[in-house]
Amino acid sequence: MDSIKSGWFSEFSPLWPGICLSLEVEDVLHKEKSDFQDVMILKTKSNGTALILDGVIQCTESDEFSYQEMISFLPLCSHPCPRNVLIVGGGDGGVAREVSKHPDVQLIDQVEIDRSVIEVSKKYLPFMSQGFQSPKLNLHVADGFAFMEKCDQKYDVIITDSSDPVGPAESLFQHNYFKLMRKALKPGGIVCSQAGAVWIDKHTVVSTFSHCLKEFKSVAYGIVSVPTYPTGQIGFVLGSLNPDTNFKVPLRKFSDEELDKMNCRYYSSDIHASAFVLPRFAVKLLEDAKRGDISQQNGKTVK
Amino acid sequence: MDSIKSGWFSEFSPLWPGICLSLEVEDVLHKEKSDFQDVMILKTKSNGTALILDGVIQCTESDEFSYQEMISFLPLCSHPCPRNVLIVGGGDGGVAREVSKHPDVQLIDQVEIDRSVIEVSKKYLPFMSQGFQSPKLNLHVADGFAFMEKCDQKYDVIITDSSDPVGPAESLFQHNYFKLMRKALKPGGIVCSQAGAVWIDKHTVVSTFSHCLKEFKSVAYGIVSVPTYPTGQIGFVLGSLNPDTNFKVPLRKFSDEELDKMNCRYYSSDIHASAFVLPRFAVKLLEDAKRGDISQQNGKTVK
What we know:
Two copies of one chain form a homodimer. Helices cover 29% and strands 31% of the residues of chain A. The first copy, chain A, has helices spanning 64-76, 94-99, 115-124, 126-129, 144-149, 175-184, 202-215, 256-261, 269-274, 280-291; strands at residues 4-5, 8-11, 19-33, 38-44, 49-53, 56-60, 84-89, 107-112, 137-141, 155-161, 185-194, 218-225, 233-240, 295-297, 300-302. The model of chain A is unreliable at 296-303 (pLDDT under 50).
């Protein structure tokens, strides 16, 4: 928690050595060591209120909407009728806020491991934690992995809104987790998981994508722009049990009027399709992963 | 030039107050005060060699390709036959490198105001300044604005690869500059200009887009991901004298084999099209600009 110096918060991480984003701090609204991680809420000068976990920016008021909308609507709009949804993680409430907007969704289970994140979000991030007020939502404070072991063919869509693959979220990036999700899905079910940034963390992208390929019949990797994340973007891996799912073509196309009503500031059907159009170097990376050209050695991606 | 402290370079700018990207420095390879700006070359730990002008990152070895490819191929592939091309700025040689790859291009004039940038790029950024070796290229050290005043219907495509709209590049973001470019273009000619990032600099985006709208018959704003630029992306304004130009559909579609041969790591026809698919908040911003709802008051964008 010594990440604030001379009025600036700096985001150092072994996941992106040699690069650091800093935000000028107006006020430290909260900091604590929860049972799982360091939790901090900052009032920044440029980006509004920000949630920091273990020294890493999770969301800022200025740009959280792009991430929340995309991790929610990419899978939801790729499913013909997403009635029952499970959210793993997402303790700030942002994903619950977006998922509850979808008219087909009837029931949302959410399982977040860290009660402290929920509590500070309710207090300091009302624009996100409003998601917890949805009558569709059942919020469980528990380990997502353990929670899902008890589920069998229960959900149409499972969204994993985790922090990075170090600390409490590590297990959510493993092969076993994708197996568990497959079991917890109804036939034709869809998953969407935070899966690393292709410019900076090829290992996480490739390994998550490969796990998903092993368990799901149709798989894609999509990108969203989030200025306060490292490299300014992050990716999602999506998998479907229906081999005919084409993630690039949303089944549910909301009109501009509907998107306005849902206060979607980033997502549209066009943006949905374009999220899966990747730069050539990323296309090649995932093609290699598909062909199994990439083997895993000592946790590093080698070709 | 006091932007390096404790082995880290930090990019502070009044254009993005309260946010700062820092790169760990292995070595300061060069620094000087040229006739126009502070010029610095850093060897960074994470991103290879980097060119810094007036304290702002212009390009790093790790990610410059996305910017250079897109600012070049978006306009070139939107033109039916881009024979004569003018590059304004681009003193690192990266745009010349890309433009010279296009098989239709026969002649490239480039006008860069700062000889020092060319010299340090030749010495420290050979992967970019290789562009200066093209037999198609005539390199002029001069003011782009003054250079173009003498041109009349000479070019098929004009690419403006400038630094940000403070300092030597300021005039390249003004309405008069778009008038000049129109005059220097052959019938059906196309321009592409660096035009600010939509997450952080709405004023530059809207004003550049509006200037372009006044002078050109078909206009679009496209986005490219550049991790070491503020917000991780930057935008281009493109304008065509041909009202039938549809920037979203490239006229020239290179095959994968051709793109491999040209060493394109970011650009493809699909990426071309998707660059113009904008998040809803950006669509609305530009629609407002089109409708003229936005008036300029004291240099600030007000609605």
